Amino acid sequence: MNQSNCIVAQSGGPTVAINASLAGVIAGVKSSEKYDICYGAVNGILGILNENYLNLSDIFADDANLEKLKTTPAMYLGSCRHKLPDYKDDDSPYVYIFHQFDKLSIKAFFYIGGNDSMDTVLKLSDYAKKINSDVKIIGIPKTIDNDLCMTDHTPGFGSAAKYIASSMLEIAHDTFIYAVKSVTIVEIMGRDAGWLTAASALARNEYNTAPQFIYLPEVNFDKDKFVADIKEALAHTNNVIVAVSEGIHDADGSYITSSKAACDQFGHQQLSGAGKALEFIVKENIGVKVRSVEVNVLQRCASHLASLTDIEESFAQGKKGVTIAAEGVTASMVCLKRISNKPYQVEYTYSAIKDIANEAKSVPREWINDAGNDVKPELIEYLKPLIQGETAVAYKNGLPDYMDVSHLHKCN
């Protein structure tokens, strides 16, 4: 009997929940009558181009390992940031990839990733259509940036938001102890979309109003207005805390950074220094105690502070990817549709990849206040359900006990 196998890979930046989606794919294959073996390509699409595979069906035959995978951070299969050329300009990598699919009897390919990964899904889908391949190409979303279109929110975002809000509350506690005028600038990841920075507002409670100001890339940043905001706040409180996206920019579109940014393979500027730039502005114009904190990659792999909602939804989306592929769906990405906030309910569905790849979902302007320095209650209500619940992470010798990923750091 001819085998019908599938292959899965992970790409882009890591998250707390991307391995939960991988676990969902593996679990979906195990319970499927459509596929025999689930292979894993190591380091994204490069794993196929380099013929570097793992037999995930063997490795995760034990359900205990599958459960452990769900709470292991980052990517068990490793990642890459590799941009495929347009097949009309150079089809050689496509010919090779689909030759590998034939060689391994692959009938479905699942790519777990964010915006750039969905570009790969689109390109492979277009080429599959061109050559009349029956391989189903499915995107499974992930990104802490929460900027994929056609889905309510993305796997990984809820856990990162929980980490940001928790860290902001802890920074506030640290700041409150000094009875001196101070400003603390907290720079948070987010080049084009401010979802993660907006999540800092969840730190506010009955005794904490920090962050007093939130600046997102969806609104042009005005230096003079920023200085006025800080001066006004300092007139009423000793400690002002500001949350700022790394991608804030002025009305001309110039990023507010302390240094010139380089670009990655996909042409995205690799930003840093927005917090430091604002620190300098406060020093020069206000002259109070000021410091900047850059929350860089820590929230991407903080499984000890994961959102249970995020992990469960990520696992379910991985399984959904297998289900729709088995039903004959291709050139699509798994999506979430929110049914209600109270009680919180979602529906698992999918959308055509052509409507998702190379697009970005921004925070709606109507969810940001008129002054452009805070978020509205509608955004808080959107965010709250996504950070609920805690995961049961196993510990060993006082530290989290994660899956062994030694296969990722061996020299080639």
From TrEMBL:
One of its GO terms (molecular function) is 6-phosphofructokinase activity. Diphosphate binds at residue 13. Substrate binds at residues 143-145, 189-191, 246. The record marks 142 as: Important for catalytic activity. Its main location: cytoplasm. Non-allosteric. GO terms for cellular component: cytoplasm. Belongs to the phosphofructokinase type A (PFKA) family. PPi-dependent PFK group II subfamily. Clade 'B2' sub-subfamily. This is Pyrophosphate--fructose 6-phosphate 1-phosphotransferase.
